[in-house]
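User: Hey, my collaborator sent me this sequence without any context and asked if I could get a structure. I don't really work with proteins. Can you help?
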Amino acid sequence: MAVVNANCLAIYIDSVDSQTKIKTLAPYATTSAAATAATVDHTRAIIADDDTTSGENNIFIGYGQITESTDNFTDKLGDLELIGAATTSTLDLTNSIENVARDGSGGTLQESNQEWTVTADGLIQTDNDAGVSIMDMARNKYYAIVKFSIDKDGTDTDYYGQVLIESVQLSGGVDEIATYSVTMSGVDQLFKSA
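Assistant: No problem. I've predicted the 3D structure and written it out in structure-token form, which is a compact way to encode the shape of the chain:
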């Protein structure tokens, strides 16, 4: 039996176009292929590829800026600002089925929907006040990128996604460590690192 080590959640924000949903470009096996195929500039874009097992465009390839005139991709993953690291976190993914029509043979046609949420709790540090940053992100309705890492037997598997904050709570008492609690709704797909 494998033991899954503690999960690690990091919440990132990009100061550029944070109130605008980040465009996902897919399916592209490389960031350069996405840049070559682009017909317009993208200030920020998530590049995704097909999952060979499901055919879904949910494999994370990169995050960055595309300049269409030069077919250039500039990696911006390193430019993201860490605004929260959780002490506890939960990634919840739900698949649901909806009956959308009758098929004419007495059966129904179905469509599946997928939703995902992330909840996290963490400590607010005086030198890196994650609570204030997360509260401001919620107030300003900023999109953020989350990275949820799972370490299994020394191998990291990373999941990336774009979120909006549903709710945030800051709490603390006199001479106590202040904490934050946040619930985030996934926007579009949850991506797995390649």
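In plain terms: The longest helix spans residues 130-139. You can pass these tokens on to your collaborator as they are.
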